[in-house]
Amino acid sequence: xxxxxxxxxxxxxxxxxxxxxxxxxxxxxxxxxxxxxxxxxxxxxxxxxxxxxxxxxxxxxxxxxxxxxxxxxxxxxxxxxxxxxxxxxxxxxxxxxxxxxxxxxxxxxxxxxxxxxxxxxxxxxxxxxxxxxxxxxxxxxxxxxxxxxxxxxxxxxxxxxxxxxxxxxxxxxxxxxxxxxxxxxxxxxxxxxxxxxxxxxxxxxxxxxxxxxxxxxxxxxxxxxxxxxxxxxxxxxxxxxxxxxxxxxxxxxxxxxxxxxxxxxxxxxxxxxxxxxxxxxxxxxxxxxxxxxxxxxxxxxxxxxxxxxxxxxxxxxxxxxxxxxxxxxxxxxxxxxxxxxxxxxxxxxxxxxxxxxxxxxxxxxxxxxxxxxxxxxxxxxxxxxxxxxxxxxxxxxxxxxxxxxxxxxxxxxxxxxxxxxxxxxxxxxxxxxxxxxxxxxxxxxxxxxxxxxxxxxxxxxxxxxxxxxxxxxxxxxxxxxxxxxxxxxxxxxxxxxxxxxxxxxxxxxxxxxxxxxxxxxxxxx
Amino acid sequence: xxxxxxxxxxxxxxxxxxxxxxxxxxxxxxxxxxxxxxxxxxxxxxxxxxxxxxxxxxxxxxxxxxxxxxxxxxxxxxxxxxxxxxxxxxxxxxxxxxxxxxxxxxxxxxxxxxxxxxxxxxxxxxxxxxxxxxxxxxxxxxxxxxxxxxxxxxxxxxxxxxxxxxxxxxxxxxxxxxxxxxxxxxxxxxxxxxxxxxxxxxxxxxxxxxxxxxxxxxxxxxxxxxxxxxxxxxxxxxxxxxxxxxxxxxxxxxxxxxxxxxxxxxxxxxxxxxxxxxxxxxxxxxxxxxxxxxxxxxxxxxxxxxxxxxxxxxxxxxxxxxxxxxxxxxxxxxxxxxxxxxxxxxxxxxxxxxxxxxxxxxxxxxxxxxxxxxxxxxxxxxxxxxxxxxxxxxxxxxxxxxxxxxxxxxxxxxxxxxxxxxxxxxxxxxxxxxxxxxxxxxxxxxxxxxxxxxxxxxxxxxxxxxxxxxxxxxxxxxxxxxxxxxxxxxxxxxxxxxxxxxxxxxxxxxxxxxxxxxxxxxxxxxxxxxxxxxxxxxxxxxxxxxxxxxxxxxxxxxxxxxxxxxxxxxxxxxxxxxxxxxxxxxxxxxxxxxxxxxxxxxxxxxxxxxxxxxxxxxxxxxxxxxxxxxxxxxxxxxxxxxxxxxxxxxxxxxxxxxxxxxxxxxxxxxxxxxxxxxxxxxxxxxxxxxxxxxxxxxxxxxxxxxxxxxxxxxxxxxxxxxxxxxxxxxxxxxxxxxxxxxxxxxxxxxxxxxxxxxxxxxxxxxxxxxxxxxxxxxxxxxxxxxxxxxxxxxxxxxxxxxx
Lengths: 525, 803
Prior knowledge:
The complex is a heterodimer of chains A (525) and B (803). In chain A, 35% of the residues lie in helices and 28% in strands. Chain A is an alpha+beta fold and 525 residues long. In chain A, strands 3, 4, 5, 6, 7 and 8 form a 6-stranded mixed beta sheet that branches. Chain A has a 6-stranded antiparallel barrel with strand order 9-10-14-13-11-15. In chain B, a hairpin with a 3-residue loop joins β12 (420-426) and β13 (430-435). In chain B, the strands form 8 sheets. In chain B, strands 14-15-16-7-17-27-18 form a 7-stranded mixed beta sheet, with helices on both faces. A 6-stranded mixed beta sheet of chain B has the order 20-26-19-25-21-22. Chain B has 803 residues and is an alpha+beta fold. The longest helix of chain B has 25 residues, at 252-276. Chain A binds chain B through residues 332-333, 335, 357, 359-361, 363, 365, 380-381, 406, 409-410, 412-413, 416-417, 419-420, 422-424, 426-431, 433-435, 438, 442, 497, 500-501, and chain B through 27, 30-31, 34-35, 37-39, 41-43, 56, 59, 405, 410-413, 417-418, 561-562, 565, 569, 621, 623-624, 627-628, 726, 728-729, 731-733, 735, 755-756, 758-760.
């Protein structure tokens, strides 16, 4: 079925957009250069003409790409390229490595089922040592230079095996070719050669991150389509997506020539999708993000919103809070609370746990928890600064840039002090007023007058106003507009407090009462 | 003038006034209601209030004054026809001695002074003048054993009516009865004084009985003092008794003189034997005891001199034994004291300078760059070698680097860590520290105990101070000269013994007896009392200390700021300081404080730069405290209800205090005052366990803190416990202080910190004391205004110790 969005008529012609069409054709892999040309040249077409083109494209495409099968995202298996490197003191011969490769391949194919099309190959000589010993140093450029990366590949997985004395260290890292996103390095150690293949298999499966495509995003909810979701036969398979899995969104853009603009690849910071429900090859996710609407933006065929699965590891992650200013000063002393996401089934609000305060580097360690995703609430004084979703263990350290809040906190400290002062003053004034009235009632005019003098010595509203102004003049301002706004709100609130509760009327009333009582006493014999 | 006949009298004898309790309750309710309404506007949770347990002090109960306090008057008692009415009259001038029954007495009544009445003598049963009334009252008081009161009445009569019949006899009987009564109540000393008065008035009055009682009493008194070991007073009593009563009347005087002389002689002999055996410490103890018992004993002074020459010992009576030694300790008085005796630091505080403290390096020189962004330490290689101290610039550098970001464990760095940019060593003994930003007092970071720089156990002695620990008994701690001390001069005291004293009074007694030579910390009120004692020199420490209550743990009440404010308002700090600690003496510099800094001794005190005098200490307002307590509880109940928790109805705390007298007295007074507003307090003297005081189970800790250099010390004081009140504002203010680039900024930011701590009450400031020590004439060289007792210990000498 062909869907054409008709956006309106202009000067007798119809402006049309064809995101669905474009995506279907591009994804089907049947686009020829001729058709691309046609598509690129059809910015203004009558719908009927467009329909003809589409029909033609299908016909021509099938004629030209006779060997290609019509495949969609959910039925397209992952093209996985596994590169194995080894570094040993001699025990692992070439033959045994080949045997190991075969063994690993066999095991992986069993584990992945139909979701993977696996290509296993030895590491090129130039990269062998680096992959086996120092996997972290391998980057995309070095791979491009030395390795024949499959054009239509989805995943490139580097597996390094290093033999050290009596044990083997297996290192593995995934490069998602669609997003060029490097996954974390996983490591395993085995002592016996017999377990090496098994360890390698598990390392690869752990490194592998399923990918989904965001179909729809509305507010805090998104629907995603699972790659190769239609090929999954059992839950244990590699590409399976389950409730509770966490995905990190990546936005990929193409230019008008349909080329991916790698320099504009955007990993959406501090944003995660938490799978809450799966249905066939679709999944519903809750969106947790530090931004208000992280997946917003114009839906277009040239903008793809993908998401890679994030695996939580039982390791802590250090979060560093830095200021947005030019020096990126560390934000020290900010209080960080952690909370698990709301469980849909129970709808209970999990308690927030205080993790501590950021240290002098602005850093705080977030320990792993039962749920992979944790929500961090950053507070400074009474003000909530940010809400940061984090998967502990995903990375050893993450940095967040927040606007500095120190001036506002300074104001808050002053305002809290003023509130205390006002509260105590109101209490003392009320107590003293009652004592004065009691003295008057008892006919103790002199004592009442003495207490009245004491009351008059209390700080007045004007005194406190003066304090407020004086403190403001000493510097309670900020260059940051938002911070200044918050400061102004705090000070305005304090002024209201003063005017509402420290009325000079009380003193005047008591003065009058004391004077009247004095006159009454003077008249009486 | 009207003349009336007096018919029957209606005498109002119930001339007493009590405040009606019902009206007090009503007043109390109104106050609470008013405050409730007022404060309710500030906080919605203050809608209801419970009435406080205490309210405005009631009107004083009116009682008819004592007879002696009234203007003189006469009194008549009428006959049965007039219901035996008792009428008080204005004094009657020249009343007839033997009136006829038909005569009339013209009187003015006290209750109706404008009216003149006439009373027929036939209707008067009795007529008593004022002096007769006083005499009767005195006799009545003696019979009811109200001797102190009776003393006033007899005193009046002896002065105003000495010719009163039988007055002398009555006075003698009164004194005798009073003395016997005092003896029955165990007040023997006072009984002796009364007996002395009795004998002075009439030596023959019941002579046999009086002599027996006096002799028995004096004997028992001396015996009690000897058993207590209070030989000074025992000797004094022997002399006084001999002078007061004469040796013939009190036979115990001679007996005791002989007995004490023999006892002292035996001790002297034993001391001489110990000296001969070169057991100096034992000889010193025995000789001190002999001197204490009978100082006039022949040869004992010479023996004392011989011991002092061969092995001078100084015994210091301490308020609290040190369980750890730390020259840098802020809140542990004994640790700091002994730290100055046994520890040296790379850079040492010497006193106040024009800008903050003055420091010097005992093992080299320290200088700062002009822009205060780097610090250079040049170690004195020759001095180090001479003392056998094997430290170099690398040891210092390593220690500093361990505090820096890259080396610190889990990012836990101290005050200085974030400031250090780089540390470089040049020519082995020169260390250059580059700072990330200018700091006003970077030299503070080099206050590193040399014990932390030592490389091996061989360096143990060389990193120690002038003295080194020589062992600790159950109670005492002993320190001997350190042969490898840094300071080259010869110390003259061979050994310093620290002996704990139960209280300041005992310590003063021990000092007077000669058991100890120095008292490290006098209770301020005792210091005032000792001012006139010429045998004892009372000295002052140069810098004052501040006293605080530090909340700790997770007691929900103490986590509430409003409640903490209630605590401050509930403690009458001025009263505790003035009455309990200062004993009514006025001591310059002792005053209540509003923040965690010393207020200094005057406006120009250079180390009081952190104290903002614009922040006044909160006053004593118990009624406001009750209201705030109720308000705090309401806040807590609301917070707890959202989490399904409960809040105890009555706040209950444990206050922990160090085992010294000043803390004990202060905490007892604080506990009493908190109980007045309905807070239950348990006091716990922090006992040492494994060398540390267990503070984990207390909610408030009493601390006497020496904040000498506020800029540096405040960080340690406010962050010394990890389970104290965690407050964002205080943390922010501390960061600002640390980041101050010049002294003006530092002062402003410390004032800001002062204000915030005052507002947030993360610690409860109590008062500042100017602390004093006392020295007997035996020890010299402590110096004028030392920072700590042992600051000049190298100059100490023992009198008569010169060869």
